[in-house]
Amino acid sequence: MTHPKTTPPKPGLHPRNAHRQRYDFAALIAACPDLARFVTRNANGVDSVDFADPVAVKMLNRALLAHHYGIAHWDIPPGYLCPPIPGRADYIHHLADLLAASNGGELPARVNVLDVGVGANCVYPIIGRAVYGWCFVGSDIDPLALRSAQAIVDANLALVGAIRLRRQASSANVFQGVIKRNDYFDLTLCNPPFHASAQEAEAGTRRKLTNLTGKRPAKTVLNFGGQHAELWCDGGEAGFLRTMVSESAGFAHQCCWFSSLVSKEANLPGLYRALKQAGARRVETIAMAQGQKTSRLVAWSYLDEAGLAAWREARWGR
């Protein structure tokens, strides 16, 4: 099996993202031999996997996590979200830049992060811990997702003690019931459900599969998986973001930066209005792109200059 010696970086990915080059399948197969049976030469003469095949996608993720992040054991239950690793890594790297900019250009040595909707895959904490040494609390409403994430943590010594998991008992809440009285988080992150209904989620999946294969699928197969809470919620992304902003104000002095991915650009004006009404002092919008796909993350803080200085002194030793 061959692969190009030098390839151009993928457009839009963060400069520190380990996935800027085309996948090195020789190295990935060395890290995860089971990947070999899913790798074939595509029409352009380049080694690849069938991204419309959920089993191939999961095996590719397993190989990427093993090769780049030292994760020896990783699995998810059938039908659960199997996220694209390069985009998840990008979010982590941009948040690291945000923290460094808040700390005189230097990344804090100790960082505590809340991952809202950690999912069965536990990918954000894996990457943040492996690359930056961050500690995480991961919340989720789905007990099976939490059991899967805990199994991943327990199976990888580097994650044990660095990632803690909490159940969100109410589908109406985001932070309430998860952030405790004595918690302090330097960052929160979230990849909210995109869709407002199961029908809308299925239509989105059909469009994605059509783009991947060039033909409309007779049957919808979720190549990246996804359960109800992972793909859709009442009110869709816009409704989830409104709840997140409203609740974040109640924890204004327990978190330095709140953040979320925002998939739909049309949801930005409403988000900005909600943040202004909630009293956010700082709002940052960071563009992100992976190939043809464009997205962005929005981060906000309720700390003014004096509050941020106090946070640096108390949390980061400056």
Please describe what this structure looks like.
One of its GO terms (cellular component) is cytoplasm. Its main location: cytoplasm. Specifically methylates the adenine in position 1618 of 23S rRNA. The protein has 318 residues and is of the alpha/beta class. The protein has one domain (77-316): Vaccinia Virus protein VP39 (Rossmann fold). It has helices spanning 25-31, 54-69, 85-101, 123-132, 143-155, 198-213, 228-231, 236-248, 268-278, 305-316; strands at 40-41, 47-48, 112-116, 135-140, 163-167, 185-190, 255-262, 282-290, 293-301. The strands form two sheets. A seven-stranded mixed sheet has the order 5-4-3-6-7-9-8, with helices on both faces. The protein has a two-stranded antiparallel sheet with strand order 1-2. Strand 4, helix 5 and strand 5 form a beta-alpha-beta unit. Helix 8 (236-248) runs parallel beside helix 9. The longest helix is centred in the first third of the chain and has 17 residues, at 85-101. The termini are far apart.
